[in-house]
Amino acid sequence: MLIRIGPFMMLTMVAGPVLSQGRELAFNLHGTTTDFDSGKPIAEVWVAATDTLDRTYVVNAEGDRKGKYEMELPYERVYRVTFSKNGHVTKQVVIDLHGSSEKERTAGFTMDLEMVLFERLDGVDYSVCDTPIAVCRYDPRKTEFAWDAAYTKSVKPKLQALSSKHTAEPKKGGRKE
Predict the structure, then answer these.
(1) For residues 65 and 68, what is the distance between their CA atoms, to the nearest angstrom?
(2) Which of 8, 76, 132, 157 has most Cβ atoms within 10 angstroms of its Cβ?
(3) 3-class secondary-structure state, position 105
(4) Is the pLDDT of residue 33 over 60?
(5) Sign of CA dihedral 36, 42, 45, 51
């Protein structure tokens, strides 16, 4: 399943084996982080998945030179996943990993989450990115993790307005030519 929230985030979610023998069952989160203006991958983006109830529990990953990252997230936690890089606007999503059965977890869940970051510009208000841009949780009817469509619908106009303001800003200040 492919879901696109404008030019801000794209995700493909599939179920497949992600468990190695002897390892804890975990949700595989991976993807690429790209620049909003150029569409090119952003190297060395820091991705941190922090448990929303136990903020001392954090799973970290650093993107490679091609913007690719990967992390294994233990189930039965709710994570705030942040994508950050100096000179860029930090974005975040929430992923709630409660609800799936042991059998489903053994088969495995994996998510390809492609994140698009804005290069920070002077004069643009990026405060919409201070809250999650999307929320994912288990849907027992579909037996899969899915994005909350109502939440996405509520955030999308704000992100589209931000996109317009960012694009309209002259190529000065924080933007590199």
Answers:
(1) 7
(2) 8
(3) helix
(4) yes
(5) positive
Residue pLDDT, tens place only, 127-154: 999 999 999 999 999 999 999 999 999 9
Instruction: Give the torsion sign (CA, 30, 36, 37, 39).
Output: positive
Cβ–Cβ < 8 Å for 138, 144 = yes
> Quick check: 14 and 28 in contact, CB under 8 A?
no
- H helical segments located in 22-148: 102-107
Q: What is the pTM of this model?
A: 0.85
**What is the CA angle 38-39-44, rounded to 5?**
95
CB 118 within 8 A of CB 148: no
Amino acid, single-letter form, for residue 26: A
How distant is the alpha carbon of residue 75 from its chain centre? 17
Reduced to 3 states (helix: H, G, I; strand: E, B; else coil), residue 155 is helix
- As a whole number of angstroms, the distance between CA 95 and CA 81 comes to 7
